[in-house]
Amino acid sequence: MRLVADENLVAAEAAFAGWGELVRLPGRTIGRAEVAAADALFVRSVTRVDAALLADSSVRFVGSATIGTDHVDTAWLQQQGIGFAHAPGCNADAVADWVVAALAARAAAGRHRLGAGTAGIIGLGNVGRRVARRLAALGYAVRACDPPRAEHEGETGFVDFATALASDVVSLHVPLTTQGRHATRHLVDAAALAQVPTGAILLNAARGGVVDEHALATRLDGGPDLQALVDTWTGEPAIDIDLLTRTALATPHIAGYSLEGRLRGTARVAHAAARYFNRACRFDWREHLPAPPPALSPGALVATILAAYDPRIDDRALRALARLDHAERGPAFDALRRAYPVRREFASWPCAAARPDLAAAGFAGAAQ
Description:
By secondary structure, this protein is of the alpha/beta class. The chain is about 35% helix and about 15% strand. It folds into 3 domains: about 1-90 and about 255-290, Rossmann fold; about 90-250, NAD(P)-binding Rossmann-like Domain (Rossmann fold, 3-Layer(aba) Sandwich), CATH 3.40.50.720; about 300-360, Erythronate-4-phosphate dehydrogenase, dimerisation domain (Ribosomal Protein S8, Chain: A, domain 1), CATH 3.30.1370. The strands form 2 sheets. The chain has a 6-stranded parallel beta sheet, sandwiched between helices. It has a 5-stranded parallel beta sheet with strand order 2-1-3-4-5, with helices on both faces. β8 (about 170), α9 (about 190-195) and β9 (about 200-205) form a beta-alpha-beta unit. About 45% of the residues are buried.
């Protein structure tokens, strides 16, 4: 078999050992010529998979080691009889880590009190549910907003969009969709931003297009009354540098880039491909984890969280793009993701003592 895979698909060699030829390529450079003779294609979020890429190719299966599927024309794949699998939930804990660490970073800057106030969680899928549980455990009064789920499950336990927006912390965890009554493109537009209170924190670790970035920049231009914490951007990798300079915290679409999350993503698509092609796959992602990081010593909650993962380091690296020429920024953005250092999920960190507050933040080693 001939397999084409994004170079950022971690441990692909082990996952597909013995399958045949594995060709690794940068995700944005995978084109028609590269997949023409391939049996399977494995991508992450930066490769657009549709008829323009795969028509007349020999690809029979596509795997995307990601939560979202907005970069894949799944309807076209189905029409063509091409198998497809993705990895919902694979990095949900990593994104929840990012949310907690981003809030801790604002607390360290004296701009937020961790665990205080209300938290509007918009989108209660794999990621949103985890974020809601952690923020509630930390002490926030969580307001869960998910209109599609509320329609199917009943309104008990959910709030409307306006109520979620009127929170001290507003965290977005919806897919990017463009059609239907619950389309999410520009869900957070000028009218929505006007409902977010002065001094609130808005976090976007969903997709860039969920927020109208022009409207967000306009709101931020009005003064430091809104703190924007942004991981996902419209037009990646050519992100809006002017918006970047206005954010309180900015990272290069790496919220879900934990080692555990990336290995889970590879495992999901590898096992799905094995079932599709009726091949053996003995890949166990846990076997590819290094030794646990050193035990966290007891300390203040905010400092301990940032010792495990400090998003301000990613923020500084991304802001360096502003010093580059326009043509250099896109490749530099991708380079930050390609060379991203190993980051372990909070649950993988041992703790020197049982700490209910650290357990609430997601550190499994701190549980009683």
